[in-house]
Amino acid sequence: MKQLTELHAMVSKAVDELTFPAYPTDLYEPISYILSLGGKRLRPALLLMACDLFGGDVEKAIEPALAIEVFHNFTLMHDDIMDKAPLRRGKITVHEKWNANVAILSGDAMMVEANKFMMKVDDAILRRVMDVFNETATGVCEGQQIDMSFEQRNNVLIDEYLDMIRLKTAVLLGGTLKIGAIIGGATSTDAQLLYSFGVNLGIAFQLQDDILDVYGDPEKFGKQVGGDILSNKKTYLLIKALELANGDDANMLDHWLSVEQFNATEKVAAVTGVYDRLDIRNYAEDAMQTYADAAFNALDQIDLSEDRRQYLRQFADNLLVREY
Amino acid sequence: MKQLTELHAMVSKAVDELTFPAYPTDLYEPISYILSLGGKRLRPALLLMACDLFGGDVEKAIEPALAIEVFHNFTLMHDDIMDKAPLRRGKITVHEKWNANVAILSGDAMMVEANKFMMKVDDAILRRVMDVFNETATGVCEGQQIDMSFEQRNNVLIDEYLDMIRLKTAVLLGGTLKIGAIIGGATSTDAQLLYSFGVNLGIAFQLQDDILDVYGDPEKFGKQVGGDILSNKKTYLLIKALELANGDDANMLDHWLSVEQFNATEKVAAVTGVYDRLDIRNYAEDAMQTYADAAFNALDQIDLSEDRRQYLRQFADNLLVREY
Fold first, then answer.
1. Contacting residues of B for A111, CB less than 8 Å apart
2. Are strands B87-88 and B91-92 parallel, antiparallel or unpaired?
3. B87 sits in which H/E element
4. Which of A97, A144, B20, B95 could covalently link to B103 via disulfide, CB atoms 3.0 to 4.6 Å apart?
């Protein structure tokens, strides 16, 4: 079993060494640019890990791992246009550095490049891998559309929210692990269990992210506390609070969601106060635990030696408790 | 050999019967909408024709033909955003009817759907088909980027222009025919020759389009004469004229390219006058003939019975002379 740090270094090197044609400049430069911004590159490393887990040759998983990284960055490039985001990983976004047309078209070209990299798998598993990849891509598009539609709605249900984060972020983690497993020679059953592990872990991770935004240690978390509150982002916490709040608490939430001029500290304190009174943190942690349990349950069913299972369990534990 | 009209009816029915998931509404409704706008649907019919040409089962080519139609409409959806086009086939464009974000994301989802349809080919030809499809998609993205970059330039060379139309429009025709041929059981050599036939025919067709804009019979052509001239579009004619013009003609072109307020009839007449003095129509027709000859030359080398070759020759003849 290779260590994740080693796999991470392999895949980071491969991303850094990627080159694209010089012409047309405005099609390919933005691709190199967004890939150079770094990011954690956790997903491609996990694809190698999944392959290694079943005794596969990780060299054969590098191009598919690049496919996942290129695909993920394609979705970021298009998401940034839609969100009118000025910055990505602290650097100017493609649609700001060039323009929206360049970002649309370079994103399209990235998706084709991602497909080409994924096609490098052996013939024997080509269809299985591409089917997972295409289903994953559909899920990510659906999740992004649902997320955008939430901005116009104040009656989002918890189940709708959970479905959205499953599609928007968790299926990519699940799909990444499943593709790695298939390349590594896993049985269909084990590949599907690893998918389930990844999807449930991804949902738990996103719920943790929602909790950390309000209750995280800002130094460990690395983000401004209450960023989601300030932007009225429909997180698990806000949706649950809107569901449970009555009387003064409901009025207070309505007020802070609609007021356009405010003192940031005051808004974060007031909304957090509502959350505290409604015990929202506990609800969110329970939900997170439910998905974590489902992930570990899937993991327990995979046909793996105990040390490999332990390795994955530890990876998941680290992911889920690191930032409080 | 099935008639093109019959194949066209088959594929049009298949397009009309396409359904997509109901949810998320704003992801899938725009896909159904743009596909319902019609268009000639010539490309998917040609994919069936190419399959039939080599004795293949056209039923097996229907889903790949849908892939081509969905892919083509994905590029139109994104191109319309980039061009800020209000109308497509006389109907309101997706980014105007919904908004640009919806058009970006629905376009992305369409590309995934196109890939899924193309994946329906048999395992034995899956990689060959997908490789052609991906190369085609890359070409179309490159062509669109080069076309956009031309808007900012006044020194475009004829060879750059020919390369642009090859990528932006001709490789899709070539790729469509090649995929149909592979499905139909053609040898690699014959599939490649049919690709060459399609690409060269596509370039000839685009050059004809450039000529018809200025010299076509408006009743047969179905478009306003001089539309390209009015929008300063860099066509073969304009690029060649800019290359050849001296003295008064050069000044006149510069004037009409830069003036923002003008009488349309006057501008079309003046620019056409320059074209006439420089014999631009002949240059363009010679170029068109060169590509038509290359197409027929490729056709002559394909291992086909004489009646099938004649059928394709007639198809190409019809495409290239219909609208004067």
1. 108, 111
2. antiparallel
3. strand B87-88
4. B95
B82: closest chain A residue by CA: A101
Query: Which residue numbers in chain A have pLDDT < 70?
Result: 221-223, 322-324
Q: Are the beta carbons of B293 and B204 closer than 8 angstroms?
A: no
Nearest Cα of chain B lies from the Cα of A321 at a distance, in angstroms, of: 33
Closest to A271 (Cα-Cα) out of A244, A246, A250, A243: A250
**In angstroms, rounded to a whole number, what is the distance separating the alpha carbons of residues B205 and A58?**
48
Q: What is the pLDDT of residue A324?
A: 44
Is A131 in Cβ contact with B105 (below 8 Å)? no
Give me Rg for the CA atoms of chain B: 20
Using alpha carbons only, give the angle A270, A275, A279 rounded to the nearest 5 degrees: 150
Sign of CA dihedral A24, B83, B239, B255: negative
Residue (of A130, A132, A84, A76) closest to A107 by Cα position: A76
Closest among A299, A319, A162, A184 to A235, alpha carbons compared: A162
The residue whose two tokens read 């025709």 is: B173
Reported as type and span, the H/E element at residue A4 is helix A4-16
Examine the predicted complex and report whether its ipTM is higher than 0.90. yes
Cα B177 from Cα B47, distance rounded (Å): 5
Helix or strand (DSSP H, E) at B88:
strand B87-88
Q: Which helix (H) or strand (E) holds A91?
A: strand A91-92
| Amino acid letter, B180 | G
Chain A residue numbers with beta carbons less than 8 Å from the beta carbon of B101 are: 81-82, 148
Ordered mean pLDDT values, 10 residues apiece, chain B (324 residues): 93 96 97 94 96 97 98 98 95 98 98 98 98 98 97 93 98 98 98 98 96 86 82 96 96 95 96 97 97 97 95 91 56
Dihedrals phi, psi of A206, to nearest 5 degrees: -65, -40
Cβ atoms B81, B129 nearer than 8 A? no
pLDDT confidence of residue A221: 64
The answer to whether A230 touches A267, Cβ cutoff 8 Å, is yes
Query: What residues form DSSP beta bridges with A88?
Result: A91
> Which amino acid appears at position A238 of this protein?
L
Residue A120 in tokens: 């490098």
**What distance in Å separates residue B137's CA from the closest CA in chain A?**
7
